[in-house]
Amino acid sequence: MSEAADISLSKETLGGTVAQFTMAAIGFAGTVIFARWLGPSAFGGVYLLYALTKLADRPMNGWSLAAKKRLSESDALRPPAFGAQLLFDAGWVVLAGIAAFVAGDALRSYTGLAAAPLLLVLLLATESAYETVDSLVQGRGRISVATWIDAVRSVFTLPLQIGFVWLLSTAGTVVAAGMVYGLAAASALTFPLAAAFVGARPALPSRTFVRSLADYARYSIPTTALGTTYDRLDVLLLGFLLAPAAAGFYEVAWMLTLPAVFVADVAGRGLMAAVSARRAQGASVGRDVSNTVAYSGVLAFPILFGALALSESLVVTVYGPAYREAALLLVGLAGYRVVRTQSGPLLQAVNGLDRPDIAMRLSAVAVAVNLVLGVLFTLRFGPIGVVVATLVAETLRYLGTLLFLRRAVSGFAPLSRPMVAQVGASLVMFVVVSTARASLPVRSWSDLAVLVSLGGIVYVGVLLAASPETRRTLDEAVRGTFAPP
User: Fold this and answer.
1) Helix axes 326-352, 244-257, angle to 10 degrees
2) pLDDT digits over 393-440, tens only?
């Protein structure tokens, strides 16, 4: 038996989403501070390094998905899953470190950071290792706990980053590296907390168990590599085809639209564990998948329409005139986020069904389409071209995932009344905010706050008034989260 089979997805999603907003507030403050402090080129260079790190750690992440899958099937598998993950992480960091120093000149040239090889290895050994252990916590069905641990890490990250950047600036060296040192230190500090919530002491895995992990990982590792290549391909292409400053513009737009996927990301992680555990018991999973996608876009739809109404005002007011070119990217990425809130949880359901091969093939198609169109569109249209390419690729991946699940899962409904209500409430919000925007030019943070707050109040009010299903789901989640044990 596994405790993941008994989790409440609505409760875990609500708790995890609140934690996501906590992290977002801290991360948002950090991007504003460092974008203005470092400038587009240095700021973009750091995120180019982050993107490369996320490519380099995909084997670690893919192996952790395999460990998460097996761990979710039975509580007795926690110790060997934990032990196998730690051993794999250590071995991969050593191999990746050797490769990083061999390719040191190329890394330094691409990112503009003199210490790029060392920084990449440091992130692998701390941030990436932390994320793999946090994934095991999710495998227990403790999605809210895992996300709150990550929120604690964010609380450590920002002050540490500011401190390191300030120290390096007083020392007269490259200050951008301070952002990396801060993230690495915060991850190292939080690692023991995540390890404690795995709920088991690591044990040496048997050969049979390692083979079971390898059988899953031979698909999950390529899938995560393809997925991350796909997620960060935009930044990587901008770095190769244009300049680090373009990557800085993209990262600003990426951060402003990030809250759109909070519900989908948290719910998707819980869905994978729930589908895995319940399918292992022979139970139906169609309702779980349908309910998850019904509310995954609850933040994405209003953010898209809000971006249409306030894109330039948001970018210029928050990050400064130097980032004005990010306004168009903001609208494009908001559209991409809408599609991603649907495809993301569906891919997690596919993984939970023990079909990582399907997820891998869909991700491979998405990466190929994104790469070809990304190069062509970026050279022709500039930074917005890479966003359009990503939107097209994500739509194809969504349709492929949808087709598979319609055949594999009985009772799965991709469209629902709550989703229609979310789109309708977003349209009403767009009309109200656009009208108010015409009467209230945005000249300061206070003007922007008034318009954003107005939009939020209108959206939530209309949605709750028009959708009894949303009211009922919210009530169940709140009661489950705050009810006494």
Assistant:
1) 60
2) 999 999 999 999 888 888 888 888 989 999 999 999 999 999 998 888
Amino acid at 178: G
CA distance 46 to 110: 11
Helix axes 468-482, 286-296, angle to 10 degrees: 100
- Nearest-10 Cα torsion for 329, 177, 49, 29: -30
Tokens of 285: 């999973």
Q: Is residue 27 within 8 Å of 154, Cβ to Cβ?
A: yes
Looking up tokens 């469209």 gives 415
What is the radius of gyration, based on Cα positions, of the chain? 22
Write the single-letter amino acid at 456: G
Rounded to whole angstroms, the Cα distance separating 263 from 202 reads: 31
16-43 per-residue burial string, b: 16 or more CB within 10 A, e: under 16 = bbbbbebbbebbbebbeebbebbbbebb
Dist. CA 162–CA 404, nearest whole Å: 46
How much is the pTM?
0.70
Vertex 23, ends 60 and 446: CA angle to 5°?
Answer: 145
Cβ–Cβ < 8 Å for 385, 371: no
Is residue 251 within 8 A of residue 235, CB to CB? The reply is yes
Residue 146: CA atoms inside 13 Å, Cβ hemisphere, count? 25
Encoding tokens for residue 348?
Answer: 């997690």
Residue 462's Cα: distance from chain center in Å?
Answer: 28
pLDDT digits 0-9 by tens, 59-101: 998 898 888 888 877 778 888 989 999 999 999 999 999 999 8
Q: How far apart are the first and last CA of the chain?
A: 22
Q: Which residue, 345, 344, 309, 348, is CA-closest to 330?
A: 309
